[in-house]
Amino acid sequence: MEALPQQNNGAEDRSHRILSAPYVAAKDIFLHALDATRVAVAMERHMVLDADMMVIDGHRYDLPQYERLLLVAIGKAAVPMASSFLSQVGEAARRFEGIVVGAKAGPLPEGIQFIQGGHPSPTEASLEAAAAILQLLESATARDLVVFLISGGGSSMVEQMLDRDITLAEIAATHKALVESGAPITAINTVRKHLSAVKGGRLAAAAAPAEQISLFVSDVPAGELDALASGPTLPDRSTLADARRILSQFNLAANMPERVVPLLLADDAPESPKPGDAAFARSHQAVLADSISLEQAAASRATELGWQVTLDSSCDDWTAEAAAAYLLKRLEDLKQANPRARVCLLSAGEVTVRVPSESQGHGGRNQHFALLCAREMAGSDRVVLSAGSDGIDGNSPAAGAIVDGATASRADTAGYPVAKALRDFDSHGLLALLGDTISTGPTGNNLRDLRILLAP
Asked: Where does CATH 3.40.50.10180 sit in the chain?
């Protein structure tokens, strides 16, 4: 890695520290990508209303022919998705009735109920939301149209166990054990789907025989859409056998509530609806935006700013340590191959961090990843940004962080070494102290994380 330059032409932050031009560029690229992938923009791109005909990615719905129009939106992007959808359908919006379960209330028309679902852990409201949605869908007939709007976070915001005797405390403990297990999101959701009455295609089964269209803002890997919000409206490709294997692989039985584990191991445990099930006979899907959209928007902006861009999301779902080592090495290889170029490496997706249950620190996978990079690139002119498109990183108020070759020395000067923050899983504590967090607030979107690595 090259040494830090003595001077730069950057901007000044709140602590009067001069920020390098690459530092400023990284933040610009991230914020541009967020703006370019807003829910309203994505909805307009995929949906049109031609008189009374609603057309979504080639699927046509003659709205007057349906007896009832039902809307169910769940997840972190639920309110923006519902607002954008209803705006797009114009006068027909008055006919829709339904339920929106999201993180924060927003403007919704009469006839649409809002419930603030629990996240990252299910709450009493999550159970209320599941019961209300199931009641609405079970009244649907073959003469009705159900529009599902699904985004990440729905797994905790809407929940009801197949065994109704399982308490909220046990449900919350189950979710906590899964999230903190170090398992990738697809594995976590495989287990959730085989415990839940609203996941793994079971909302589609509840809505059948109504016609259904599901629109997705996806925070799961490409090709694994049935993991989004634990796949409530899609055929489940995973099996009970998969859930049992994950239970063993990540030692989940030792950390999950005693009454929950037998629900997966019982001989008569029910399977989730699979491809070919009658529940999906009148069901269609369309992806509005995903992590690829986020990555491509970032690439477009980086190119405009004069960076030579490479996309590499192969470390998706790796541990933060493995991903940091891989991406920093990839960045150096690209720079060595193009020494005169200003190199930008973009990586979308998520990394995993296994946090000890006794940890009292604050942070999330993005800030932890950023600190790992800061430790390895100390004294160089490299810049790394890692942040979540939903605006929330772990148990912190930040979306993520941006670090450079001076981060480690600045941490030492502040009396809080990077090594200690990593050991204590307190990435936010250190990065907030240094003024290097990225805070957007909840974005109303959820397209996974974006990592931006720059070598000027």
From this structure: 39-289
C-alpha 346, offset from chain centre: 17
| pLDDT at 11 exceeding the cut of 90 | no
Q: Got the DSSP string for 146-166?
A: EEEEEETTHHHHS--BSSTTS
SS3 letters across 66-111? CCCEEEEEECCCHHHHHHHHHHHCHHHHHHEEEEEEECCCCCCCCC
Question: How far is the C-alpha of 102 from the C-alpha of 407, rounded, in Å?
Answer: 36
At 448 the pLDDT is 92
Phi-psi region of 63 (alpha: psi -120 to 50; beta: other; left: phi over 0): alpha
Helix (H, G, I), strand (E, B) or coil at 270: coil
3-class state of residue 383 by DSSP: strand
Structure tokens at 250: 């990540």
Q: Which of 314, 141, 170 is nearest to 256 (CA)?
A: 170
227-232: average pLDDT: 92
CATH number of 21-36+292-455: 3.40.1480.10
Predicted TM-score of the model (pTM): 0.84
What's the CA gap between 51 and 57, in Å, rounded? Answer: 17
pLDDT of residue 323: 98
Cα(284)–Cα(455) distance, rounded to whole angstroms? 43
| Residue 241 buriedness (CB in 10 A; 0-12 / 13-18 / 19+) | exposed
Q: How high is the pLDDT of residue 185?
A: 77
In CATH, the number for domain 39-289 is: 3.40.50.10180
Q: What percent of the chain has pLDDT over 90?
A: 86
**Tens of pLDDT, residues 290-321:** 999 999 999 999 999 999 999 999 999 899 99
Residues 154 and 115 sit within 8 Å (Cβ to Cβ): no
> In which residue ranges of the chain is CATH 3.40.1480.10 found?
21-36+292-455
